[in-house]
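Q: Given only this backbone (222 positions), what sequence would you predict?
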């Protein structure tokens, strides 16, 4: 099959119908295998891809919660907010200076975000979403009272804006995918989800001017 795909040309009237049938069978078998193995999201994504409608697929909180690798990525980003954003240790010098130099009784509103590339882990997640990353965007307000600063806000977790279900040249299935896309029987589509959490953190200013996290409470996903 590899040799046939290597010699395929859309203008070849004899070869095109045969390759089209071979490509259909490849994805029929792929979808059936994913379903048999219980990889429901991967199977559904193949069906969406083969519909040819493209567009955007938005995944529910419940769907994302079935993928531990994505939840671990969210947790990594939460840890960065706690350890670096709230303590004024980011790559944003202005944010750091404002938080660390906040006067008693003063307030400061700010934004920050963290990205975590999801490592190749369980097949159900990789086959559904491919090599992906989770971006967490936060909006916060800090208020200082004496040596204590309280930070309140929310964080939205989701895929990056360019995440797509598609087949790159080096991926299994790329050749049959190119055939189906060329015939209008399949199309890549964008993927998105949005899981929002409230957060409240309390920190203490140390004599040297640094901030130490005392607690951070994250709300339920909504």
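A: Predicted residues:
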């Amino acid at each position: 099959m590899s040799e046939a795909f290597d010699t395929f040309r859309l203008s070849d009237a004899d070869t095109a119908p045969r390759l089209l049938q071979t490509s259909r069978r490849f994805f029929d078998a792929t979808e059936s295998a994913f379903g048999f193995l219980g990889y429901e999201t991967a199977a559904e994504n193949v069906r969406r891809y083969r519909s040819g409608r493209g567009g955007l697929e938005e995944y529910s909180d419940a769907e994302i919660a079935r993928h531990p690798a994505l939840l671990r990525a969210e947790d990594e980003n939460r840890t960065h907010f706690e350890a670096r954003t709230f303590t004024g240790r980011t790559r944003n010098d202005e944010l750091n200076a404002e938080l660390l130099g906040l006067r008693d009784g003063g307030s400061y509103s700010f934004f920050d975000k963290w990205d975590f590339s999801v490592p190749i882990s369980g097949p159900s997640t990789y086959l559904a979403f491919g090599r992906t990353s989770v971006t967490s965007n936060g909006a916060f307000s800090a208020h200082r009272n004496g040596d204590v600063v309280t930070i309140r806000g929310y964080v939205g977790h989701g895929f990056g804006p360019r995440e797509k279900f598609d087949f790159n040249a080096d991926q299994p299935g790329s050749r049959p995918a190119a055939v189906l896309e060329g015939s209008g029987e399949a199309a890549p589509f964008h993927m998105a989800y949005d899981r929002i959490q409230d957060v409240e953190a309390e920190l203490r200013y140390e004599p040297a001017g640094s901030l130490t996290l005392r607690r951070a409470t994250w709300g339920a996903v909504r």
